[in-house]
Amino acid sequence: MTVAEVRVGHLLARPGHEADRGPSVIRIADGRIAAIEPIPAGALTPAEAGSIALPAPADAHDHGRGLRTLAYGASDRALEDWLPLLARQPLVDPYLMSAVAFARMAQGGIAAANHCHNTQMSAQLLAEAQAAARAAQDVGIRIAFALPFQDRNPNVYGDLDRLLASLPAEDRPGVVARAGAMRALATNMALIEALEGLEDDLFHLQYGPVAPQWTTHETMAAIARGSAETGRRIHMHLLETERQRHWADAHYPGGLIAFLDSIGMLSPRLTVAHAVWLRPDECALLAERGVTVSINLSSNLRLRSGRPPLAAIRAAGTPFGIGLDGMAIDDDEDILRELRLVWHMFAREDRAMSEGELFDAALVTGRRSIVGADGGGVIEPGAPADILTLDFAEIARDCVHDDIDPVELLIGRMAGRHVRRLIVAGRDVVVDGRATGVDLPALEAQLTEQARAAYRASPPDLARIDRMGSAVADYYAAGHHRCG
Q: Do 477 and 159 meet the contact criterion of CB atoms below 8 Å apart?
């Protein structure tokens, strides 16, 4: 439904940078903010008077996991030990996967997300991308679809033969087959061209070199050239774990970040996710090139990766956004709680982050990594009408005086349960806390039923998965990933 106006008792047009404007009406036309006017408090309904409006947040890095990993037994542990467990995932309808994930994001307050797609079946990537585009339209949020490019190291970082030596003979053919089934560069570039017709205001394509350890030099260089020629953005994982840092140091003695710079990968069109093991000089080079970093604190905690070096990132002036990675601390899509977690986790930094920096990361920088510089992330005339309203009366229900700073209250308490309305491009996407474009409870029930049926019909070989997990653990324990 198209929205003509939003009436609220509190308005944070640029949270952390300017004060609450108080009772206001935000007028909307053609998907953008047309005007903002003060309004007498008495002209508001009780629900309007108890609402606070702010620019809608962006999820700077996610995987759109409609079927959460814990649901099929991929329990939290170190990333490299966790990846083999993803073989437990049952095959389900890709539209259901995306629609459930995107609707949960919307109900968590997210207006835009970087979706790093993980294929269920490599040969069906085109259909999966088309399903994600349809889900973005149905739910109504902005999605940047990073088409995955992976053409090396699908099983471990480094020498496959050393992994095979730890596996029984009957398991080896499947591991070798996986290594031989990766899509070629030309195939992925053709897929990008085939999907260009799906792009619109809500669906954007990005190059998705999955990570340096999983993408060949030839492919990364081709993506860098393609991005420079077309302006298409790039989204890539980078130095998420200590093992990846060890691998990078062994394989790039001149420095991985310097290598990426030498092939033209580093530019304002690039967003790198995680970057937990960046060094200060690398942060400085990323800042110089205008690269955006997505920090993903919940995921890094759950997958034992460590804490992102936010002090070094901020000291260098590296732009950063905030992402959930499909691994929020409560296994939900609550971006508001994630902001609070980031705020408290880094409160003891030498140069404390300001409230404005926190909100800019979630509202402005993360958004720019998804849709580019569209003037969003603020509530002002001419900006896209992407607006979130929260139940401020509930957030402030026990306050004993009226002049408390609403930003302080939000940082202390805001969560997805407080979402009342999400407007994207001037359309209602969430009303009274529920997605309007799809029936999320029905889709969730359908997805769960389908996944259970698929699991029963084709149960994973848990013994084989366990053997693979043990072999992978032995590989890294032996330090094979450190061999150049």
A: no
The pLDDT, as a whole number, for residue 95 is 98
Three-state helix/strand/coil letters over the chain? CECCEEEECEECCCCCCCCCCCCEEEEEECCEEEEEEECCHHHCCHHHHCEEEEECCEEEEECCCCCCHHHHCCCCCCHHHHHHHHHHCCCCCHHHHHHHHHHHHHHCCCCEEEEECCCCCHHHHHHHHHHHHHHHHHHCCEEEEEEEECCCCCCCCCCHHHHHCCCCHHHHHHHHHHHHCCCCHHHHHHHHHHHHHHCCCCEEEEEEECCHHHCCHHHHHHHHHHHHHHCCCEEEEECCCHHHHHHHHHHCCCCHHHHHHHCCCCCCCEEEEECCCCCHHHHHHHHHHCCEEEECHHHHHHCCCCCCCHHHHHHHCCCEEECCCCCCCCCCCCHHHHHHHHHHHCCCCCCCCCHHHHHHHHHHHHHHHHHCCCCCCCCCCCCECCEEEEEHHHHCCCCCCCCCCHHHHHHHHCCHHHEEEEEECCEEEEECCEECCCCHHHHHHHHHHHHHHHHHHCCCCHHHHHHHHHHHHHHHHCCHHHCC
DSSP class of residue 380 equals S
Edge-to-edge strand order for the sheet containing 419-424? Answer: 10-11, 51-55, 387-391, 419-424, 427-431, 434-435
Is 85 in contact with 389 (CB distance < 8 Å)?
no
Confidence (pLDDT) at 350: 61
- 108 is in which domain, residue-wise? 58-371
Q: Is 383 part of a structural domain of the chain?
A: no
Question: For the chain, what is the domain count?
Answer: 1
pLDDT tens-digit readout, 225-248 = 999 999 999 999 999 999 999 999
C-alpha angle 337-83-141 in degrees, rounded to nearest 5: 40
Question: In angstroms, rounded to a whole number, what is the distance separating the alpha carbons of residues 167 and 165?
Answer: 6
- Decide if 226 is inside a domain: yes
Render pLDDT for 100-115 as a digit per residue (tens, 0 to 9). 999 999 999 999 999 9
Would 437 be classed as within a structural domain? no
Q: Answer whether residue 392 is part of any domain.
A: no
The list of the chain residues with pLDDT below 70 reads 349-350
Residues 6+ apart with CB under 8 A from 91: 120, 121, 454, 458
CA distances to 21, 144, 288 from 149, rounded to whole Å, are 46, 15, 26
Output the domain CATH number for residue 306. 3.20.20.140
Angle at 84 between CA 82 and CA 88, to 5 degrees: 100
